């Protein structure tokens, strides 16, 4: 249902103004992202539509005034992302209203998101707390030493082992997500040990170049080995969103051609995050987790 602009008071979003979006709204989501200065990451949005729930408010002039997305992982964890408000509808409470709507629908013990400096205060007002950082690195990745041992390219038979390790680290099962990643990623690499898979990393194509994510590893040396193994497949500047401080891996990234370009705060609502976050170096995306 389209609600006229004057019918949506400041900081109040009637529930009837919000609707579940479908693939027919995909192009409007990309246009809204570009309106806010974000790249039109069609692969990331495709994952949100395929695995999550995307909600929006229609713009009476056409297109979308605002969006938000949820990705549920059982009753354990829900991630929130894709919160966008068109510039012409800014400062009217649409973002806050959609976040309230999303938080109420999350139905999970923990809700996770990454927040820019601009959004942190609003999320804090809604009950989110800062639990960490996510730092973006970008540049031309050079291969180097493999302190964590050699890596190899994964094949479909490795899917169960990758899902099992991710479930242990992430704290919730994501079989459907990894089934899609094994088909859509340019490459997934593994480091193995006597007890099985010690780490894995994916490389997929973003709108502005290659993106690394997820990256799960038992330590920084294993993470560096995975990145070094991916380097030959990277044909231009790569982007990596590094979760946590990770001083050893930060130093390795800088030695191998990447530089810090920005960052966000990791924020959580409800219980502390499940799993073993010390081994989750990089999310799939900032909206999927």
Describe what this molecule looks like in 3D.
- This is Ribosomal protein S18 acetylase RimI-like enzyme.
- This protein is an alpha+beta fold and 289 residues long.
- It folds into two domains: 5-108, Gcn5-related N-acetyltransferase (GNAT) (Aminopeptidase), CATH 3.40.630.30; 136-265 and 273-282, Aminopeptidase, CATH 3.40.630.
- It is 29% helix and 33% strand.
- It has eight helices and 13 strands.
- Helix 5 (159-170) crosses helix 6 (175-184) and helix 7 (220-230) runs parallel beside helix 8.
- Residues 1-11 have low confidence and may be disordered.
Biggest β-sheet description: 13 strands, mixed
Give the ordered list of helices and strands. EHHEEEHEHEEHHEEEHEHEE
CATH architecture term of the largest domain: 3-Layer(aba) Sandwich
CATH class of the largest domain: Alpha Beta
Could you please say which CATH topology of the largest domain applies here? Aminopeptidase
* DSSP summary, beta strand count: 13
Helix amount: 25-40%
Low-confidence stretches: 1-11
Helical run tally: 8
Return the domain count: 2
State mean pLDDT (0 to 100 scale). 91
Structural class: alpha+beta
Straight-line distance between termini? 30 Å
- Gyration radius (Cα, Å) is 19 Å
């Amino acid at each position: 249902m389209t609600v006229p602009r004057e019918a949506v008071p400041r900081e109040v979003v009637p529930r009837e103004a919000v609707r579940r979006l479908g693939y027919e709204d995909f192009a409007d989501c990309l246009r809204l992202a570009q309106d806010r200065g974000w790249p039109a990451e069609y692969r990331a949005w495709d994952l949100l539509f395929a695995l999550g729930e995307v909600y929006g408010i229609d713009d009476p002039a056409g297109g979308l005034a605002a969006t938000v997305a949820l990705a549920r992982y059982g009753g354990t964890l829900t991630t929130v992302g894709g919160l966008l408000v068109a510039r012409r509808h800014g400062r009217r409470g649409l973002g806050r209203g959609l976040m309230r709507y999303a938080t109420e629908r999350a139905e999970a013990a923990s809700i996770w998101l990454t927040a820019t400096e601009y959004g942190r205060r609003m999320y804090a007002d809604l009950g989110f707390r800062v639990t960490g950082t996510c730092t973006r690195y970008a540049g031309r990745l050079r291969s180097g030493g493999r302190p964590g041992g050699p890596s190899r390219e994964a094949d479909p038979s490795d899917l169960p082992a990758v899902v099992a390790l991710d479930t242990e680290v992430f704290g919730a099962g994501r079989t459907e997500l990894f089934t899609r990643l094994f088909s859509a990623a340019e490459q997934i690499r593994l480091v193995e040990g006597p007890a099985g898979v010690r780490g894995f990393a994916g490389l997929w194509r973003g709108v502005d170049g290659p993106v690394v994510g997820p990256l799960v590893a038992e330590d920084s040396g294993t993470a560096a080995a995975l990145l070094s193994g991916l380097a030959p497949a990277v044909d231009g500047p790569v982007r990596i969103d590094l979760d946590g401080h990770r001083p050893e891996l930060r130093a390795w990234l800088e030695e191998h051609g990447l530089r810090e370009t920005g960052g966000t705060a990791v924020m959580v609502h409800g219980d502390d995050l499940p799993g073993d976050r010390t081994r989750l170096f990089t999310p799939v995306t900032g909206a999927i987790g």
